[in-house]
Design a protein that fits this description.
11 helices; about 25% helix; RNaseH-like_sf; Nucleotidyltransferase, domain 5; metal ion binding; five-stranded mixed barrel; Protein NEN3; OB fold (Dihydrolipoamide Acetyltransferase, E2P); nucleic acid binding; RNaseH_sf; about 500 residues
Length: about 500
Amino acid sequence: MVTSEDRSEIVFFDVETTIPTRTGQRYALLEFGAIVVCPRKLVEQHSYSTLVRPSDFSLISTLSVRCNGITRDAVTSAPSFADVADKVFDILHGRIWAGHNIMKFDCPRIREAFAGVNRPAPEPKGIIDTLALLTERFGRRAGNMKMASLATYFGLGQQTHRSLDDVRMNFEVLKYCATVLFLESSLPDILTENSWVSPNAAIRCRTNGSISNGMGLIIDTPSSSIEIGSPMKSVAEAHIESDNPIFPLVSRHVEVPDLLEINSSRPDPFNLVQFSAEVRESIQLDDMKDEPASDSRDSSASTATGGYISYTDFLEPNKISISSISLSLRPLYRGTQKIQILHNNGELQVFSRCLKVRFGISTRFVDYAGRPRLSFVVDASSELCQLLDAIDNLAQKLIEDTGSMSEWRPVVNRKPGFMNCPTIRLNLPTVVDGNISRWVTEIYQKESSSTQKLMFSRFDVAELDPLISPGTVLDAYYSLDSYDYQQIAGIRLVAKKLIVYSS
């Protein structure tokens, strides 16, 4: 079998599925299409597409047919996914994946399809999500940045919503956008400001403070890490093949220079290592990689040394003065910035007692490769809500002042029907260790007179389900992490340590 190290091509792919018409209904794969592209010459090397027969034809609703035109009759004689799984795996595995909105839609559907036939899913060498990439770099000059809008903008015709057609249209749109950006980056500033270039071209890349990091490309680097509170450095598993300005290859380790020392006056719109560093910092894929040293003393009083977490630095909401909270923008890379939340000039970290779990472990959010990102929802006290609302307002104002167009998502959730009991979501950060995604939040179980650290061997979500279930009471130590990613911004609560009370 070809290994991921042997494959440097980019594979653009797209799936067509049924459209769920009721809560809890799953997607069913109806079509898969892909083209394999040489990243040096930007030419299509070969393609593959197939209709897929679903196991349940009732999932093909009228809404589904209206969307992509694929009827029950069209797939009656098509192969099942089990019949084509080997071919799909061979095309995708170990290559750089590319597509429009694939991180949120296509990647999860691929994983679901392989899980449905009890097969391991393919893994990418890296991912280029052109929706996030073009929204960030090309701006909204083409409207809502959907593929149909981009195709209309460049006069490429109508989108058919068939996999292979959409893939080729995606590839052409990306080349058109890259050409425009390349010309703009080559022009003198005076021409960029006063001639044919759209004034929206750099609206998301201004050096005076856009903090969005929605680049849409991630290089899969499970061994790299980001230390909280230290000058940002990251190692991206990438090597730039400079003979092509649009799709540098991903192959070897290159150390990214100190992010605080980079000249930010002219960001390079094609530097994929830059994209990797910015997005990895934005979504904090492995910001919790350093684990605290074990301590046999009472865990609530543990103090870390040598750069580890000190839980004495976590403050309860009633001990935090809102007037002592300040927010500032921390430089990241070539003009990008991130909100830093401080209390009395130190990083704000919160300790909340006796939180009641409203909804247990959720896997509906996914990372860059379609793997679940774990989280759960707890009820929030009025004191905690007051604190988080104040921080939310400050952060939203700061991010709006930078010119960001992202939609702000409040950290406190007040859905209709729950107005008297607002909730917050606590995220459990995970890192990839070989083929295993493991969570790095410290989890303890507290019984009547003792507190014991729980050790996990399989890192299966099923291990967490009975532990963090609705009605469970727990103490939580967590940090506040800002994000601005794929046109959505807000504050994420990242759990560093949980103490679960036995029922």
